[in-house]
Amino acid sequence: MSNKSIKTIGHLPLSEYPWACEIDRLFKSLKRGEPSFRAFLFDVIMSMAYIDSGAGLEKSIEYCDSIFDDYNAHIGFINLCAPCYENGSWQYQKAVKPQSGALGKLSSEIILKFIEYFSDNFESVVAIGGGNSADALITHKNGMRIFAEVKSAPLITYPLLIKIEQFESATHHHRVTITSSQLKVCDSALYLHDKNVIPLGKTGSENWPFKPFVDYMVNDENTDDIEKHYQTWLSAKESYITKNKDNRIYSLTNACGSPPKIAKSDHAWPREQVISDSKTSAGMDRTDDIKKGIFQTLKIGITNKHDENCKTAIISNLPAYRHYEDYVLPFIPMLWGLEKDLKDFGSQQVIFKEDLRYAFDYIITLEKPLLRELMI
User: Fold this and answer.
1) Residue 359: phi, psi to the nearest 5?
2) Three-state secondary structure call for residue 162
3) What is the pTM of this model?
4) What is the pLDDT of residue 103?
5) How confident is the model at residue 161, as a pLDDT?
6) Ranges of the chain with pLDDT below 50
7) How far apart are CA 37 and CA 90, in angstroms?
8) Among 300, 287, 34, 18, which residue's Cα sits nearest to residue 153?
9) 92 burial via Cβ count (<10 Å: 0-12, 13-18, 19+)
């Protein structure tokens, strides 16, 4: 696809963000390509996108005396302080809520960047967005055009740790008063749980937090630590799929629901507050997103009904692990047609198979995609 065509219908994924070069550098240096590792990377990158999208982060910092390595403050994206939880306390901390519009665009473009880079048979991947009928247009090397709806969300949204110099506190946990300029000179780290961190340097540094993250990932000295981070993520994924609350990391995953009764009785957890609700379900697992995604592929299919070169897809980082059997599986073999395509066949009216379309042709995900005949 020519640059002129791209400008006409959309743009290359992440091309509007100054830190896109860092993601390119990460992908070019990546030494492992298993699908689950890519899905883990998506979560880490999305966590930094949450940080990047959070307006006025300095207003959401809380002092925490459960953190190690001289970090003493925490910013989280679920209502539970992770260092406190791993230290035995159900400490409520109101989640930071980035601007939904900016975050939705980022989530869409980040997964499209993965698809663009790791799919050898795609000639181009273009982010459309806005009020168009699709979020993305993929052009296959065989000339096929795939109009796609994107529904993506991280399994874990990792919190940010901050080191505030010359700060003393007599209380266990409380909101910190700090200015944006003070925050810019603070050391930071992404907390990947189980007392593992990725150092991110000063919050005011160039292309923070993406550049220091990529510096860490491409350093061979960090290989063993990266493997620890990845194994923790795999454990979290398994607990999310099975809703295994006996695995402690389950309570740090998105859509984990409410804390146990002891959080309210012994740890002053506010009534009616959850850790993370179903709206944050991982991948395309939110039922409303599945419904909207299938509706959009049907809408795209109707618009391009008789174009054999046009296909439809739902794109996400992870499949609908919890809701696959009820909300996705029944629609995979479903074919539909239009009344005007009915033809007389003896004493009956029929629609021939070439005039039928799938509800969606593909589900393109980093793990367990539905590809039918598609080569990616």
Assistant:
1) -60, -40
2) strand
3) 0.94
4) 83
5) 97
6) 1-7
7) 30
8) 287
9) buried
Say if residue 101 is exposed, middle or buried (CB neighbours under 10 Å; 0-12, 13-18, 19+): exposed
* Angle made by CA atoms 355, 357, 359, in degrees to the nearest 5: 160
Model confidence pLDDT, tens digit, residues 72-131: 999 999 999 999 999 999 999 999 988 777 788 899 999 999 999 999 999 999 999 756
User: Helix or strand or coil: residue 58?
Assistant: helix
- Residue 14 one-letter amino acid: L
Burial class (CB in 10 A: 0-12, 13-18, 19+), 375: exposed
One-character DSSP codes across 174-232: EE----HHHHTTSEEEEE-STT-EEEEEETTSTTTTHHHHHHHHT-GGGHHHHHHHHHH
* Residue that has been written with the tokens 């709206």 in this structure: 279
Q: Which two structure tokens, joined as six digits, stand for 177? A: 């008063």
In sequence order, the 6+-apart residues with CB closer than 8 A to the CB of 215 are none
Q: List, for residues 147-173, the tens digit of each pLDDT value.
A: 999 999 999 999 999 999 866 666 789
Rounded Cα distance between 146 and 238, Å, is 31
